[in-house]
Structure formats: C-alpha cells, structure tokens
Design a protein that fits this description.
Elements: H1 2-20, H2 60-70, H3 82-87, H4 94-122, H5 138-145, H6 154-170, H7 188-222, E1 226-230, E2 235-239
Antiparallel strand pairs: 1-2
Helix pairs in contact: 2-4, 4-5
Length: 241
C-alpha cells in the first residue's frame, strides 16, 4: 500500500505541475516510455499528454545516422563501411548500435596498448617520438558484432504495435460532422438527413430480409429458438444459433 500511495502522490504532483504551466507560453512537455501499457489514464487526457506518437525501431537510414553520431569523435579507418553495418543491424535499437561502436573502440584501444607493450619490450621508447593513433578497423567491428544482441525482441515489437493500433482505434470513433452549405436553408437539413436514411434503408433492407430468412430457415431445421431484431440499419439476433 505504501508503494501505491507514493506512486499516486507522484502522479498527482506531476498533474498539478502540468496544469499549472498552462498560462505560460512556449513550454512543451515531452515524455518517453517503453511501457505505455501502464501509463495512468489521467496523464493522457486532453490538455496534458494527449498527443501520443509511436516511435518504432530505427530504419536503415536512421541506423546509419546513429552510427555516424556515435563515431563522430573516433578515428574510423577507410575500410569500414557504415552503410553495410547499418544494413546488417536490422532490429537493433539506438542503444544497441551505440554499444557496438563502444566495443569496437575498446578493442582498438586494447590492440594499441598491446602493440605498445611489445614495442617497449623490444627497444626503449624514444621520448620525442609521437604516440601512434590507432584507428578502428573493420576487424574491430567484426569482433564487436560477435557480442552484439538485440535488446528489443520481436514479441516486444508486436506488443508495442498492437498497443499503438488499439490506441488509434480507441480514439478514432467520432461523428461525421459538416456545417451546412450557406445557400442551403436550415429547414432542409432535416429533409436531407431523412432522405439519406431512406436511401440507406432502401439499400440495406433487401440484404437484411434475406439474412433474416436464412437465419430463420437454419433455426427451424435445427429446432433452435431464435429472435431477430431489425433496427433500421442494424440487424441483430438472439439465441443459440
């Protein structure tokens, strides 16, 4: 109970702070989570975090941009093809790609240290000699890829996609609202809507009657009681059929 009480107090404080900055201008509140299924519904109400954006895993172009940004301060050899690396890391997140780059850098530094140790054992190192700069070669990335793993599984991706689809469906229900034309008289609005309903009923009624006849026929053969209701544009039946 104490844990839930603390969580409720934190959420209430967040909501209070969010509602309090409404009068200020040029203030944007952005939140990110990998557990959208446990978000409090009060945070998602209109006026708060009401604009939800599903950000999937990076595509090939985004993966190349992430690799380039992660290696912008590292000496990368010319034999390293980042485009090929981005193409072969489908399903990897930004953190996974960063880990690959960091591991490749560590392998290059370790190789440089080992070469320096061997060099010191063979001959004394000249104090005026500049230290060589080790580049990150393709072999370092190949070795780093042996330890690479995806942190987001296919099941997690399907779960996020299903949640995003469910959320879109839950917010997509609404009425087809249109203002009447200025040239149209207000008294004609009711007749126009009535004409539309009559047209819909005229098109649906034959299908509904045929469907009712089929259900009744099958019910009589199976000796199953069934009740059919027709609500203008909606057909429903009740029974064990």
């Amino acid at each position: 109970k104490s844990t839930h009480g603390a969580a409720d107090r934190v959420i209430n404080q967040i909501l209070t702070e969010m509602d309090g900055i409404g009068a200020k201008k040029n203030v944007f509140i952005i939140g990110a989570t990998n557990r959208p299924d446990i978000l409090d519904s009060a945070i998602l109400r209109p006026g708060r975090l009401d604009q939800l954006i599903y950000i999937p895993l990076p595509d090939e172009k985004s993966r190349f941009a992430i690799l380039t940004a992660a290696l912008r301060k590292s000496p990368v050899a010319k034999d390293v093809d980042l485009n090929f690396l981005a193409r072969e890391t489908k399903g990897f997140s930004g953190a996974d790609l960063t880990e690959i780059c960091q591991r490749a850098c560590k392998l290059a530094i370790r190789e440089l240290i080992e070469k320096e140790q061997q060099r010191n054992e063979q001959t004394a190192m000249d104090s005026d000699e500049s230290n060589p700069i080790s580049e990150i070669h393709r072999g370092h990335f190949e070795e780093a890829m042996k330890f690479a793993r995806r942190s987001v599984s296919d099941d997690d991706i399907r779960k996020y996609e299903m949640f995003s689809q469910t959320l879109r469906q839950s917010r997509s229900f609404g009425s087809q609202f249109r203002f009447p034309d200025q040239q149209q008289q207000p008294s004609q609005g009711g007749h126009r809507g009535q004409n539309n309903d009559d047209a819909i009923n005229k098109n649906i009624l034959p299908t509904a009657m045929s469907l009712m006849a089929s259900i009744t026929s099958v019910a009589s053969l199976l000796d199953v009681p069934v009740q059919i209701y027709y609500y203008g544009t909606m057909l429903a039946y009740s029974g064990m059929l």
